[in-house]
Amino acid sequence: MHDITLIRSDPAGFDAGLARRGLTPSAAPILALDTKRRAVQTQLQTLQQRRNEVSRAIGAARAKDQDSGTLEDEVAEIKRRLPELELEARTFDDELRALLSMLPNLPAQDVPDGADETANVEMRRVGAPRAMGFAPKDHVALGEALGMMDFEAAARLSGARFVVLKGGLARLERALAQLMLDLHTGEFGYTEVSPPVLVRDDALYGTGQLPKFAEDQFQTTTGLWLIPTAEVPLTNLAAEQILDAASLPLRVTAYTPCFRLEAGAAGRDTHGMIRQHQFSKVELVSICRPDKSDAEHERMTGAAEEVLKRLDLPFRTVALSAGDLGFAARKTYDIEVWLPGQNAYREISSCSNCGDFQARRMRARYREAGGKQTQFVHTLNGSGLAVGRTMLAVMENYQQADGTIAVPPALKPYMGGIDVLRRA
Questions:
Q1: Which domain holds residue 151?
Q2: Mean pLDDT estimate for the chain
């Protein structure tokens, strides 16, 4: 959510930020609605003040046995008019909120300009693709040949964009999640949380999935929503809270299933596990002071990168251009892992600094010790990592000429003595 006072003070700057995202100017209609809203609020305040003055005058007249009929008529008219103005004020408030809620966060000043992913800027590469000495297979061919990845069974159960994992691959997925959680809690100071995976409208509104992206979400018949990412419940732990400044930063992590309709990705990555309706992810969320969020963003990205370093998987980190940013993000780093089966780098994590955009929607604030004023926190989120995509990256990068898959050394403590995945 945007700060209306900032839009009033710099409408041209606000429109310039939207233009960097490829959006049309919006300050003029916002400010026109805001002007009407404030005019009604002024009328309300004036009328309420007049009601109080007349009520006192009626009391004084009665105390002196004077006629107060005219004053009483005025109070009656004020009482009739006030509900009308209050309804009008609420209507303008709702219209302004609805208008602002559909607009994305503005890009940070140091975000690269550009309309889409072609303008993203590579920051660094770590590791080099292995020379395999044979034609690498993709994860689908590998998993099906091992008898551990079954898309047909999943289609019979649930339809397209689902998979059944069996045996060693099911264990490998669990091992990856355990490695990530142990790393993030043990070395980076995140607190593990087991949150609900069903949430109310307000939670999705707070992090920016509603109302704009309702078509990408799964909703139950009871009105609850399946989470598209653990970012939703983790970030909303701070919703409607006033935190002590001394408690910041709050760093939390969770391993959860995630659910997305992928309505906006029709026809993309229909083959394999890259883009599914249900997938698992270890999420990282930080709640911090505004002056610390840039450093926290770098720290979070480093935590996500460390997982790939431990697994010895080649990757690169790119800064997203303004036109490629997610709705709630002011700045995002994507981490892309090398997939030999696709001969390409593919996204495995997005680490985003949302500034106070989500905090305003959730009313998440903090207060300095001994202070009276509150300020909005800054929120950050990132995948640490997408577990399914990490699993297929391990499969493709650690495949061997005979179709077996070597277990990376970092995962062996979690695999119960299994060091190679082979067909039973």
A1: 117-421
A2: 95
